[in-house]
Fold:
Amino acid sequence: MRERWFGATGRKVPAIVVEGTVDLEGALVLDDVSDLAAIHEAHHAGTPVVIRASTADEIHAALSLGPVSCALVNDEALLSLDLAEMTYG
Structure:
């Protein structure tokens, strides 16, 4: 399972998490990646950025952004995505 830094908190979280399984207190949680200014502002402030996703493409878009700590999903089947395969083919 790939992990990413959770903002400047000093802890790591799985890249893809099921909603309700990880403490997201203090994180900026967005429904998509459309607000790049807010994502970068939060990142520069050390605030973790979490993006909700419901498809493989949404997860890939979220995790393609370095400032995003994790993608938040409701479907456990999405936990098994091969992100390297999606990125590099």
Summary: Residues 3-88 form one domain.
